[in-house]
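Hi team, as promised in this morning's meeting, here are the two structures we talked about. I've kept the exact order from the run log so nobody has to guess. The first one is mostly here for context; it's the second one we should focus on when we meet again. Sequence first, then the predicted structure tokens.
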Amino acid sequence: MKKTVFSFLPLFLAGYAFFNSTAVNNDKPAVGATQLDGPYVLYRNEKIHTKYIVEENGVKLVKTDSVLLAQKADVLLTVLTDEPGKTFTVKLKKELNNEKAEFNKVNKQFVISDIEGNFGAFRKLLQANGVIDENFNWTFGNGHLVLTGDFVDRGNQQTEVLWLIYSLEEKANAAGGHVHFVLGNHEIMNMNGDLRYLHGKYNEGDSLMNEHHMTLYGENSEIGRWLRTKNVVEKVGHILYAHAGISQEVNTIDIGVSKINKLARPFYPDTTYKYPNLETDILFGDQGPFWYRGYYYGAVKASKEQVDSTLSLFKVKHIATGHTVIADTISMLYGGKVINTDVHHAKGHTEGLLIENGKYYRVKQTGEKILIKE
């Protein structure tokens, strides 16, 4: 059964002033203006167009910068943080390639899920636990940061969250580490126009920019192109990561990590919900890896045998998910075989999972570590 979804088109408003500039380095969105949102990077007519929402003299406006594609390496984006007056800068990647989905011999991992546009919780958790420093530089060495989906919707800083993840990828790679961004149902929803959970700020911004939200996450946007390179399942060390989990239906079709991602990727922005085969239909339905909830509740809850079957099929020791909050802390179920990393970040219960030297810890925004498995 496919997940029921609805699309909501933002109302486009006319009559707003637009700033235009040929400046390449956008250190400040506009002289005398306060940045509210952005940047949004779009590719049109052999040019790169960068849009910011700003406020000037109490009026919200759009500032747009346009440069030739040949100047891409010189574009410097300014991104807000949760701290007033503090920003960070991002350079556009030279190229985008589909992510690898299997990584062996990983000794140190830091796992977070379901930030949902809460930049402050995300930043504090990363900084307190040595993943980044106060200037958003990577400090986790050869460690792997694993993000298991739903980093957008509900909160009012999803743009900033996405640009932080984007910027950390190359910094991590340079240090021998890696950032994994496994997509959740809400990233898929933003790409296919299901905006039920989008913060109202973004509906207003879309109207100001005279852009549909799907365009801002579309194949001609930098964020949209980047999201399309991500996976919906990954194996990192001995752990299988999926935003929601692996159902018995997915077990039954018996396809590996690579094929799941290959089948799913073309349909991230699909709005028809009509798939070419049973396998893809299952992946995008209620029993798929970014909608399933059977580990935690439902009429047919996952059995121990089902979990063991998944571990055997994917040749892993654990399955880690987000998607479903079951406690205010990181939780281990099924004898430690299933790890739930979804917590109420917006309610102040932010935690991450640290795996180091074979030991598993719950970690907090204070940097406190609580051993949960060794």
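And here is the second protein, the one for discussion:
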Amino acid sequence: MEEEKLTYKNSRGESLELGINSVYHCNVSKDVDGVAGVTNVIYGTNSMGQHGDTYVGQRIEARDVEILGHINTRDKAQALSLRRRMLKILNPELDGTLTYEYGGFKRVIDCRVFGEPKIARKSVLYEFYFQLECLNPFWREEDEAREDVASWVEAWSFPCAIEEDGGMAYGYRAESVIVDCYNEGDVSTGMRIRFKALGTVSTPILLNVDTGEFMQINVVMQTGDVIEVNTRYGGKGAKLVRDGVETDYFRHIDVDSTFMQLAIGDNNFRYDAAGGVDALEVSIFYNKEFLGV
């Protein structure tokens, strides 16, 4: 039988599973609040003599998830051990993620413990209550989506036969003049843009064909260089990875560049470079984000 369950995992890799079949018993549909919808705030303005307000904008607020349950054992020593484990994992100094699962459906959200977890002995069992603050209120798929704008595709496999008078292609360049990053989520979202140089490349650029926005890096890339640009809110930046060493590359972003977001639906991109474009690989990574589960 399929069941709803939540798993909280902190940045040290320690996790708590919460569900009706867990020792940390929790009926997700009844005892958890805040996993479904979101709360928005609408901004307006008015002037003397105006009836009502004029719409200016709106924002979606951070999400609070409240979880209630009990430690499902009557053994006092085991209950105290499980209580200590829960308090250790729910460390407010650590980042965490909350994963919602129901059958094959899975969504993940970033969070932190907010306030004091309360674990108190009732008449028979220990009851627990804690709150998670999700500053980014959107749920996402567990794995990032990836779109390659230009890349090399392997063409060598076993068994292998090479003709005596002919050659063999070990790989070929798959060039997509335009690639569509289709955002199936409920809101626009940021992305990671990865430029990889297979030779010398100067001034790589990724252009949004639909909006005219672009991300351009004003540098000459050496063979093996990887430049990654993050356009997500709260994580915007750029870095170079060369011979395993990371360097901040924010200062090399062209001043007219835009930290582009993926709109809901189709987003068409193409790449270019001032020189060495045939030696450039470009990939886009993004999470589809959702208002609830």
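Starting points for discussion:
The chain has two helices and 24 strands.
The domain at 145-290 is CATH 2.60.120.860 (Jelly Rolls).
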